[in-house]
Specification:
two-stranded antiparallel sheet, Farnesyl Diphosphate Synthase, mainly alpha, homodimer
């Protein structure tokens, strides 16, 4: 088996190459808008969601070449959500990945529009995935449906709204779980599911991967919350403790940091067990579950 | 032939019914977000873009039942663009269709998120269109690609950005045309093209309908600009002259109102000629071109 570190590195390079090909050129008018989009897309992200699309499709016997447009689409959706999340009317953040946020560089108007355009372009790319030889158009249509649902009000945006509506008031563990499952979990899970769909996996495998994806999304969010409390600002690219200052509903603030870690470890065990059910092909997905918890940024 | 007025009325009723079925219920959490989405979707719109999807598909021998999810998707994309256009960082409008704008009722944060969620849900619906019996998945994938492109930085959002970047400085007729073709034209044209794609029309018919759609989009925008100068505020649901006050690049401000009307009439003739090439089935599209110019709001 390829070590996880190499897998992540190769995946990131492949995705960066595909994004460079599949994004509108910054020279295209309006070039200021295209620059704003490129600024946030090429900001040194780890490309985790695209790598999940790839890892899931490979775990089902598919090939990465066939899913690259959809893999890139998931990164564009993630990037758009960060741009809008940072806006003055949302989290009002000045820094993201150690650089000024999009609206701090391009202004609020272009930041809103750059996010909007990235979301639309993502679905253009998913549609274009049907042109890749050997990809079923029915799978592409289903991927568009699943990703659109996960990105919308019953998924990621619903989680962002619930998160914002909960700010500054007391919430219980169930509510934090609801927010997390949607805000981070929905798009992570959709990345995994889209990979399985495009590989035309059978229903049992898809169900297994969906469950794995949901657990993985929760692990990521809990790990982010823990990092926000105890992490190193220089590694994270933003100030530690910023969630607490905003009165955000996080796992550590509701159940304490030890119980948050314990819950994350349980989720990692569950995700690994699901990955094991896929045999040797699922090994990378198993490793990814542990990585999601242990990463430093 | 059905008179245009009945066609528009029946279309609006059919689309309203489909939207009521295809939107997430407002009782679903987060219900404040779903209320914000519903507030703008059910604000008495004429449903022109969905009706164009329907009219185009019927002009190609398709049936409206088969395209309803995509028709509704085009309305959701239009609605999201209005919500974001009205934001304080964009046009900063207080009124839309005679009612307070979304952010005046729900606040800026939920208005941004409601727009985002409508855009994502639109592509969920396009993907779901593949479940309608008799609809080709390849056509659905292509429709997603075309609509995603038209809604993005090389289409509608590109036009919004160019419009904003042009505000308050001198622009020439070519630049106004560029902005119009993208800002309004792209989504109108995509509505027509999506209808043709879903009817599996041949290449020649599709090319004809694309050209028709582009002309129709320009007609709509010029007519909007003229209405903004000479229209009745109570019929338009917003103040007349608001574009000029903002230094917007409009047709009448660049070439004068007479030449703007002349240009629109030329476009109507061109669009009608293209519709005539479809025979009797294209009659409604021909009428729609004249309606686009002569409407009062």
């Amino acid at each position: 088996m390829v070590p996880l570190k190499s897998y992540l590195e190769t995946g990131r390079i492949d995705v960066d190459g595909a994004l460079a090909r599949l994004m509108p050129p910054v020279t295209e008018p309006p070039s200021r808008l295209h620059s704003a989009m490129a600024y946030s897309v090429f900001a040194g992200g780890k490309r985790l969601r695209p790598i999940l699309v790839i890892a899931a499709t490979e775990a089902c016997g598919g090939s990465r070449e066939k899913v690259m447009p959809t893999a890139c689409a998931l990164e564009l959706i993630h990037t758009y959500s960060l741009i809008h999340d940072d806006l003055p009317c949302m989290d009002d953040d000045d820094l993201r990945r150690g650089r000024p946020t999009n609206h701090r560089v391009f202004g609020e108007t272009l930041a809103v529009l750059a996010g909007d355009a990235l979301l639309a372009h993502a679905f253009h790319l998913i549609g274009e995935n049907a042109r890749v030889p050997g990809v079923s158009a029915a799978a592409v249509a289903e991927a568009a449906s699943v990703v659109g649902y996960a990105a919308g009000s019953l998924g990621m945006v619903g989680g962002q709204a619930a998160d914002w509506l909960a700010e500054g008031r007391d919430v219980d563990e169930g509510e934090v779980q609801f927010i997390h499952r949607k805000k981070t979990g929905a798009l992570i899970a959709a990345s995994v599911t889209a990979g399985a769909i495009l590989a035309s996996a059978d229903d049992e495998t898809r169900a297994r991967l969906s469950e794995y994806g949901e657990k993985l999304g929760m692990i990521f969010q809990i790990a982010d919350d823990i990092l926000n409390v105890v992490g190193d600002a220089s590694e994270m690219g933003k100030a530690a403790g910023s969630d607490a200052k905003k009165g955000k509903a996080t796992y550590p603030s509701v159940v304490g940091i030890d119980r948050a870690r314990e819950r994350a470890r349980d989720l990692v065990s569950g995700a690994r067990a699901l990955a094991r059910g896929l045999g040797e092909r699922g090994a990378i997905l198993g490793e990814l579950a542990g990585y999601a918890l242990d990463r430093k940024n």
